[in-house]
Amino acid sequence: MNKSMHPADWLLLMLLSFLWGGSFFFNEIVLRQLSPFTLVFARVFMAAVFLWVFIIFSRGRRSASPTKFSGQFVIVSMVLGFFNNFVPFSLIVWGQQYIEGGEASIINAAAPLFSAILGQFIRGGEKLTKNRIIGLIVGWFGVFLLVGQSGFSESGNILYGRLAVLGASLCYALGALYGKRFNFPPMVLSAGMLSAAAIYLLPFVIFFDEPWGIHLHTGTLLSMISLSLFSTALAYLIYFKLLARVGATNLLLVTFLIPLTALILGMVFLGETPGWRAYLGFGIITAGLLIVDGRFVRKK
After folding, report:
1. Confidence (pTM)
2. What is the domain range of residue 89?
3. How many domains does the structure of the chain reveal?
């Protein structure tokens, strides 16, 4: 059964969708000057530094006592840093070199579909019901419409970009299902996870990107700061708070709200023009997610 969501949970979910939807927009801007690995490293490193400074110089330091930094905390941080940040952030940013941010955000909405499937094989996961089976079929048809049929009719890089974002969705589902089993303070866990991701990324930046001497434009710098502080640090504080309160499947419903923000920002500020397949695929995926969720289609 899904955990019930109160009005405050829905408000936090909408705020999270706005913050994460903005990340696709900021990626588009920063990619004009930075390569993917450097962008992702800067994003997680700056967010981690911000959170650790905030923990140290605020009342939150009580939650960061040495007893919290156990072996289990380090392992959880490394695993979540891998599945929630290092791999999906890199895949999405790499994919956005070839597809627009709005389209990437729609494909990313497949995360709850992966979560519903993987929940069958994980202890405590939500089991398949008639609604979930129908919703999965409908949702994956929308994903195929975006990634499969339309992708094969275009250049290879566009297809690979879409598949990369789809792989990021799988990582998010794995991260949410793993992370819900632990009860570390959200701020400390977010800082640990982002620190681990920065460690993973550092060798790639040094050996492949070599971003020495880059002078960022003002717009790029402001977008990078917004991406790190708001779309990452603040967003993950909300993420872990909601994960503990409403569960992985409810939390991942945020992915069908994210495209609204990403599409609007992309069209208004970047002149992006998603094709009809993007809108149709978004509608089908959203319908599938609503059926999977169940609460909107129950018989009265």
Report:
1. 0.84
2. 7-293
3. 1
